[in-house]
Specification:
By secondary structure, the chain is α+β, with helices and mostly antiparallel strands. The chain is about 35% helix and about 40% strand. It folds into 2 domains: about 130 residues, Impact, N-terminal domain (Ribosomal Protein S5, domain 2), CATH 3.30.230.30; about 55 residues, Alpha-Beta Plaits. The chain has 5 helices and 10 strands. The strands form 3 sheets. The protein has a 5-stranded antiparallel beta sheet with strand order 2-3-6-4-5, with helices on both faces. The protein has a 3-stranded antiparallel beta sheet with strand order 8-10-9, with helices on one face. A two-stranded antiparallel sheet has the order 1-7. The radius of gyration is 22 Å and the shape is elongated.
Length: about 190
Amino acid sequence: MKIVRQAARYEETIKKSRFIGEARPCQTERQALQFIQELHVLHPAASHIVYAYRILEPDGLICRFHDAGEPGGTAGKPIFHHLEGKRLINAALAIIRYFGGVKLGAGGLTRAYGGIARLTLEQAELAEYIEYAELRFTLDYAKMQAFEYHLKKLDGQIVAQDFADKIRLTVKLPRANSGELNNFLED
């Protein structure tokens, strides 16, 4: 799976209609809906603001798309197919259309929205999705330096620490590396 690392934008005119594609990383469905709402505020005169998103939440993958008044299946679905095809999660992709007076027909709309979605995602910086785990440990002071060194090698970081008779730590690291950190502590 992949994520959109930074927001991307692409604009093109097709048969007198102006299409503006916007891709943005979103961690929650709420963020995706806020992004869509922002576009409605920024483009109040737009004919259509079509969108799709895929968000990985603790309960599972949330997938939505909306045609925004375009004929059913001609706008939101082609955008969604590009998100799905690139295996993107935690991303929203919207296309704003200012109608130029020339009707494109169902096939033309599908090609236009699909093409703008593809070109917008080509502008985006994509990265592999890394699932993180948050773990808690209690250590002796003598093990702290070696623990920090090993944690850094595993791309982890300390997010909270409490110093008392022993050190209590909360760390965050890629889930795939959590077993190796546990093995280090058992040795």
